[in-house]
């Protein structure tokens, strides 16, 4: 197990990714009861799978109805349960995490890969909807990054927007590299109170209006945010409760994954068929940091990939049930 975890965070090439992904698949096919039953329902024999394109992806809905965890762990071994926000009357997704150190490795290494050393940054987290509930994996990550930045001005901001505005201006005057990580509607609220001309601050939106504002297409949203913050581009973070890794966009909504994560596009009419680059379809994610849950997840997001492995999110499925859920025998 330990060598497999180590190999996940030492991937240096597409060939290495493919081999480690297959090793993780074989491991999860043996040790994850939910995933194993799903494979059986599809009549997939794990030993016959020799390419990652042959790997079935577990519909993300299973995280709402089942405990997706390796049989190596009992309930008392679980260190954290991350939950989705959900809406009233809707079941929450639950991600049972048996080893938080893997999650920590994942987001720390990814952050440094895309943004450099954390201790050179000031982290300002404007995440009201997440702070106001328990079980958010985003809050866990942001809190740890804030602590690791060791910057005296790093911290969370809930309803104290005047203090945040003053802090941003103060940090700008000191030429301090700063990342303003905010839920979308809260960033819009902020620029309605104040306009900026930021030079040293990266504005990163985490997506979602959380029912506070009407949804907007990315181009319109980012144009508003660019104007309000006085920046050329808006960065974005792509993650979810069911993943222990994040992808990042440094502008124009084009995301890149860390080496242990990959996006594959499936045909919306045939979820077991994979589409080539530039074709739109359902987003399948390989997240090898999910070693103790399931690394192969069919999300409810729509998107497309590009030849260099980057991807774009185009929207979400209208229906809440992903095809394939009925293949699991209860």
Please tell me about this protein's structure:
The chain has about 325 residues and is an alpha/beta fold. It folds into 2 domains: about 1-75 and about 260-325, Luciferase, Domain 3 (Luciferase, domain 3, Roll), CATH 2.30.38.10; about 100-240, Rossmann fold (3-Layer(aba) Sandwich). The protein has 10 helices and 15 strands. The chain has helices at about 1-10, 15-30, 35-40, 60-65, 100-115, 130, 135-150, 160-175, 185-195, 220-230; strands spanning about 60, 80-85, 95, 120-125, 155, 180, 200-205, 235-240, 245-250, 255, 260-265, 275, 280-285, 295-305, 310-315. Strands 1, 4, 5, 6, 7, 8, 9, 10, 11, 12, 13, 14 and 15 form a 13-stranded mixed beta sheet that branches. Strands 2-3 form a two-stranded antiparallel ribbon. Helix 9 (about 185-195) runs parallel beside helix 10 (about 220-230). It is globular.
């Amino acid at each position: 197990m330990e060598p497999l975890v180590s190999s996940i965070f030492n991937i240096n090439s597409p060939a290495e990714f493919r081999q480690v992904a297959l090793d993780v698949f074989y491991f999860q096919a043996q040790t994850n009861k939910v995933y194993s039953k799903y494979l059986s329902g599809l009549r997939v024999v794990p030993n016959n799978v020799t390419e990652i394109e042959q790997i079935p992806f577990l519909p993300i809905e299973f995280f709402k109805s089942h405990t997706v965890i390796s049989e190596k762990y009992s309930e008392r071994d679980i260190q954290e349960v991350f939950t989705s926000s959900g809406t009233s009357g809707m079941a929450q997704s639950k991600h049972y995490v048996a080893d938080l150190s893997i999650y920590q490795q994942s987001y720390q290494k990814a952050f440094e890969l895309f943004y450099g050393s954390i201790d050179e940054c000031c982290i300002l987290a404007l995440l009201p909807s997440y702070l106001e509930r328990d079980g958010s994996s985003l809050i866990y990550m942001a809190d740890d990054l804030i602590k690791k930045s060791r910057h005296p001005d790093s911290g969370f901001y809930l309803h104290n927007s005047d203090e945040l505005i003053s802090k941003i201006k103060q940090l700008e005057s000191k030429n301090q590299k700063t990342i303003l990580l905010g839920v979308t509607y809260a960033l819009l609220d902020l620029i309605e109170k104040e306009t900026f001309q930021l030079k040293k601050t990266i504005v990163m939106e985490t997506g979602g209006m959380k029912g506070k504002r009407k949804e907007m297409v990315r181009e319109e949203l980012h144009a508003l945010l660019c104007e309000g913050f006085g920046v050329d581009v808006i960065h974005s973070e792509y993650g979810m409760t069911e993943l222990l890794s994040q992808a990042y966009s440094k502008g124009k909504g084009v995301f890149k994954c860390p080496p242990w994560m990959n996006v594959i596009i499936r045909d919306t009419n045939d979820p077991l068929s994979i589409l080539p680059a530039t074709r739109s379809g359902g987003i399948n994610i390989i997240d090898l940091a999910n070693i103790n849950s399931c690394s192969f997840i069919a999300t409810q997001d729509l998107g497309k990939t590009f030849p260099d492995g980057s991807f774009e999110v185009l929207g979400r499925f209208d229906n809440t049930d992903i095809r394939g859920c009925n293949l699991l025998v209860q």
